[in-house]
């Protein structure tokens, strides 16, 4: 018997085809793997994984015949790929299908921060508009200078959108890329000091931990706004909170945090932060495409065909 294991919190639009295609075993999270009978664990050859809880060697060893971890998401930093390699387990992700939505949300958070859309909406809803007149003037976004930290697939989509906003686009990447005249920086502090908006589009994982360091945040200055759609780990969050509280930077738009969803409550007290609940890819259309790609990888694996989007 070979079985597929589905781990994580899926919406019904994913659960229905997962059931129909694989008749799988469902678990809420990786910790529940410990509760599987040995015979069940040994039957599992493929796994659909969704979530950001680490999945490592201990869990893999409970599934001795596992050959595939199909991740629901482009970022697979939760999965210990070295441990998977050591056990001959393939890992797949869901790249590209979510680029547009994540880029849209990054731009949306910039506009929301600059134009104070949450506060302005509250001004209208509370009756202040009728009672006290126009909402306070706020900040122009189009035409300013933006820095993209990490010009990968999503970073490029963000840059393309902001070029249409007549923004002067700068970016950080280790080597210069082929761009329509955007300014390359090989040092994150140099990028941060050159721009008004700094958008983090790095991959997660150990290599990029606290890449947006205290020094990078300090270099942004009092007009600087940090937008993060990557992972909470890429930013020195304690330094960011200090800078937001003291107004050393102007503000932030954050879709990702450390310890999601139990984020640092200091964020809730700040009126200069646009907070989003890690919903970058969270549209009906994109989640359907992510689910399809995850299932297609599992189907290919069971059929012995080439995986569509392998990462190892
Ligand atoms: C999540 C993401 O996968 O693609 C990624 O890397 O962070 C998201 O799309 C999604 O929230 C499901 O956990």
CATH superfamily of the largest domain: NAD(P)-binding Rossmann-like Domain
Q: Which CATH architecture of the largest domain?
A: 3-Layer(aba) Sandwich
CA radius of gyration is 21 Å
Given as residue ranges, the uncertain stretches (5+ residues, pLDDT < 50) are none
SS summary, helix count: 12
Describe the largest sheet: 7 strands, parallel
Physical arrangement of strands within the biggest beta sheet: 8-7-6-9-10-11-12
Gross morphology is: elongated
Describe this structure as you would to a colleague.
The chain has 2 domains: 3-97 and 284-303, NAD(P)-binding Rossmann-like Domain (Rossmann fold), CATH 3.40.50; 99-275, 3-Layer(aba) Sandwich (Rossmann fold), CATH 3.40.50. It has a 7-stranded parallel beta sheet with strand order 8-7-6-9-10-11-12. A 5-stranded parallel beta sheet has the order 2-1-3-4-5. It is elongated, with a radius of gyration of 21 Å. Helices cover 36% and strands 16% of the residues. It starts with a strand and ends in a 9-residue tail after the last helix. The model has no long low-confidence stretch (mean pLDDT 97). Helix 1 runs parallel beside helix 12, helix 5 (99-114) packs across helix 8 (153-164) and helix 9 runs parallel beside helix 10. The protein is an alpha/beta fold. Bound molecules: 2-keto-D-gluconic acid (8YV).
Note the main attributes of this structure.
312 residues; alpha/beta; Rossmann fold; 7-stranded parallel sheet; 5-stranded parallel sheet; 12 helices; elongated; binds 2-keto-D-gluconic acid
């Amino acid at each position: 018997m070979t079985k597929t294991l589905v781990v994580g919190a899926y919406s019904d639009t994913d659960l229905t085809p997962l059931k129909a295609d694989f008749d799988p075993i469902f678990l809420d999270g990786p910790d529940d793997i410990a509760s599987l009978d040995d015979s069940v664990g040994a039957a599992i050859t493929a796994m659909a994984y969704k979530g950001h809880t680490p999945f490592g060697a201990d869990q893999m060893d409970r599934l001795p015949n596992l050959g595939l971890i199909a991740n629901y998401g482009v970022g697979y930093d939760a999965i210990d790929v070295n441990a998977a390699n050591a056990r001959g387990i393939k890992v797949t992700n869901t790249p590209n299908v979510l680029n547009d939505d994540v880029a849209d949300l990054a731009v949306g958070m910039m506009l929301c921060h600059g134009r104070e859309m949450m506060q302005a909406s509250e001004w209208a809803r509370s009756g202040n508009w009728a009672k006290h007149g126009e909402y306070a003037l706020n900040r122009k976004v189009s035409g300013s200078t933006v820095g993209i930290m990490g010009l990968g697939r999503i970073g490029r989509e963000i840059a393309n959108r902001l070029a249409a906003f007549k923004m002067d686009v700068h970016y950080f990447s280790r080597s210069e890329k082929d761009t329509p005249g955007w300014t390359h920086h090989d040092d994150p502090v140099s990028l941060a000091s050159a721009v008004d908006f700094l958008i983090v589009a790095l991959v997660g994982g150990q290599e990029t931990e606290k890449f947006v360091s205290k020094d990078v945040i300090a270099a942004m200055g009092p007009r600087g706004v940090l937008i993060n759609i990557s992972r909470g780990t890429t930013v020195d969050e304690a330094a960011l909170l200090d800078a937001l509280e003291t107004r050393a930077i102007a503000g932030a738009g954050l879709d990702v945090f450390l310890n999601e969803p139990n984020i640092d409550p200091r964020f809730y007290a700040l009126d200069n932060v646009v907070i989003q609940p890690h919903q970058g890819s969270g549209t009906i259309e994109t989640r359907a495409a992510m689910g399809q790609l995850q299932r297609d990888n599992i189907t290919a694996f069971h059929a012995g065909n080439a995986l569509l989007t392998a990462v190892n």
